[in-house]
Amino acid sequence: MLTKLEYWAKQCPNKKAIVADQISLTYQELWQAVLIKDQTIKDSVPYIISHSRYLNQLLSFLRGLKEGSCPIILHPNISGTFQQQIKHVDGELLEKADFAVLSSGTTGKAKLFWRCLSTWTRLFDYQNKMFGMTGNSCLFLHGSFSFTGNLNLALAQLWAGGCLVLSQKLSLKTWLSLWQAKKVSHLYLLPTYLNRLLPYLTKNNMTATHLLTSSQMISQELLRHYYKKFPQLEIVIFYGASELSFITWCNGRAAVKINGLVGQPFPDVSISFKDKEIFVETPYSVEGMSQPYSVSDLGKMSPAGLILEGRQDDWVNQRGVKCHLPSLVELRSPSAKRQRSARFKDRKRRKRNPNISISFD
């Protein structure tokens, strides 16, 4: 990774590497920032990064890699107890790993994993090809680099020699301004953001040709709405986990036709099943993990690829009757009529103030 950054710094020193709101770094400036000596990094193994600003997180991470200090970017508001546990990690793992990652914590407490950089970089060329990311592309993403999807795709974009665009602000007005000024071609956003953005996007302000998103929570309805509004948009959906990296990927149009489809495995990834539980064997896993490995997802294989059918903990046994919790939640959600009414009110509000700035609090 560092060799790539040095290469781009020499080949195209004045090319934009990172834009973070008002701050802009060329590849030469990025490489010079990575080379800055910091004794505290060298003396700290593992090197714990707790910056709140995304650009500082990424620069500190790259410096930690350069110093061989096994950097780890912490989630916001992570406990002091957890930080102390990180410092007492098994020395054998530290010798094998280049950095650490955390699970998202959406299914419980965040878990700590140690990873070799090569488990990501050797897949970058393939994943960049599948995601349409090149030296000419410009990727926008939002959120902490403690989340592996953000960190992986950011490094992959820099690997390709493209431009990475970040914003600390949760403001659609700011985002649109950045997209248009920097000619953003790729968006990587969680389905939650994609859902809330959609009513405000138009053919005039939407610069992206590619939309990248994870399989979790993306609905067929949301995909249909994006394709209806932007027929030429390329949507790529991937399925993965912090400890396994990427598992499968598919085109959004295929996912519209088949509910739960997450597509074909990445190279050298094998998938098997036991009572519908998905087990994965992959060369892109974290250190110290026995395989085949399961993240407790359920599914099946079809000619079109892997189809997800929920998680084991989606089901509970109530007096001998199996209940599917997501379905129960859906039954409790507001009626379609109320949702249509809310959308109508929102359209009226936007007509009164077309320059409204949306905050995603």
TrEMBL record:
The keyword Glycoprotein does not apply. This is Long-chain-fatty-acid--CoA ligase. Gene3D superfamilies: N-terminal domain of ligase-like. Residues 335-353 have a biased composition (Basic residues). GO terms for molecular function: long-chain fatty acid-CoA ligase activity; phosphopantetheine binding. Residues 102-277 form the AMP-dependent synthetase/ligase domain. It is an enzyme of class 6 (ligase). GO terms for biological process: amino acid activation for nonribosomal peptide biosynthetic process; secondary metabolite biosynthetic process. The lineage of its organism: Bacteria, Bacillati, Bacillota, Bacilli, Lactobacillales. InterPro entries: AMP-dep_synth/lig_dom, ANL_N_sf. It comes from Streptococcus pyogenes serotype M12 (strain MGAS9429). Residues 333-361 are annotated as: Disordered. Keywords: Ligase. The keyword Phosphoprotein does not apply. It comes from the Bacteria. GO terms for cellular component: cytoplasm. Its EC number is 6.2.1.3.
